[in-house]
Amino acid sequence: MTSNRRSKPDVLLDNSDAVYAYYLRHRPNRLQAMAAYALLANRFRPRIVFADGARAQLADLLRSKRPILFALNHLSQRDPYVVAAAAWRSPLRPLIGRVRVLAKDELFLDPDQRRKVDMMGGIPVFRGKDHGIRAVNAAGQQMMDICAERLTTGDHVAVFPEGTCNEVDPARVQSIGSGIGHIAFRATKLGAPPALLCLGISYGPRPDPTVEPTEAEVRSAAFYFRTPVLTLPQRPADIARLTAAELQLAVDGATAAY
């Protein structure tokens, strides 16, 4: 099933072949993305904090032009706006428009919402929790292949590997799957081994993590950069375990910095 605009297929599970063929090639308008990120940075003003040596190592990594696989914790539906603001206010600004961001498929259903997600470099993810594990298996394989291929073309990929908002304990990273490991593994097989960069977000201590953070808490978020990991394990499961450990250290840093 496709839309009337053949170049832009409907983001539906039974249309995944056309969806991922489209997002293999899709590129956002960088000028529009820059403008949107600048507006978000004016609204949200996250405090940018670096682990010891991380700023210099990140500068070296950016100069190398090596693809980066970003991993971030997920606390709120507003996380993408905070990430965009942090990107504008950090050394990541030159990458705006060149980072593909994995986003749940429901964000692509409303045309206006889809336009915004596309502008921010979104790639749809059909989640097992929404459609059933077996039903999404083939689409998941396609998604990981697309991400790996994008990493070979000068793009970068950002993942919220927890898969859903953390409503248990914002200071503890929840279980992550092996998907991020498979993306890194497949990109390496294609000749584009990515560096791993874990970024932590904190909105401060919240009595009830099931309640979305307030506007004030989001506006003053702490955003923490770990040092980049330049050498990854060979097996996807080991990459995922390393990501979980590094991401927890990033969350610890963000929590302490809030």
TrEMBL record:
It comes from the Bacteria. PANTHER family: 1-ACYL-SN-GLYCEROL-3-PHOSPHATE ACYLTRANSFERASE. The keyword Transferase applies. It comes from Nocardia stercoris. The keyword Coiled coil does not apply. Coiled coil: none annotated. Pfam families: Acyltransferase. This is 1-acyl-sn-glycerol-3-phosphate acyltransferase. The lineage of its organism: Bacteria, Bacillati, Actinomycetota, Actinomycetes, Mycobacteriales. GO terms for molecular function: 1-acylglycerol-3-phosphate O-acyltransferase activity. One of its GO terms (biological process) is phosphatidic acid biosynthetic process. Residues 68-204 form the Phospholipid/glycerol acyltransferase domain. Keywords: Acyltransferase, Transferase.
